[in-house]
Write a structure and sequence with these properties.
This protein is mainly beta and 128 residues long. The protein is built from one helix and eleven strands, in the order βββββββββαββ.
Amino acid sequence: QVQLVESGGGLVQAGDSLRLSCAASGRTFSCDSMGWFRQAPGKEREFVAAISRSTGNTLYGDSVKGRFTISRDNAKITVYLQMNSLKPEDTAVYYCAARNTQVRGLSLRTRRSEYDYWGQGTQVTVSS
């Protein structure tokens, strides 16, 4: 099992920045790929970004490209999401996810069903 704990959410104004953190524990060696998803009220959970912990390769959703940056600190087994130029439409609960790459392979994925472990989520609210 892998446990994921997100932190860093909050209320900000449009144009502000925010950094989310996701600390992983447990059988983290089985999860090379980690990612962020978000879910706004009444909407489907949407892919935001993913990163390979070993190579640092990244993948982004179209709506956040150029504004958000995913990174990792392997010593702390933590993944970050730096969010810049925030917009009201970025308001959502942000979830950290990890993919069991020992079973599924090392490629970065964007579908919710391709991830095995989830955090409890952290609320991000962007006011206009």
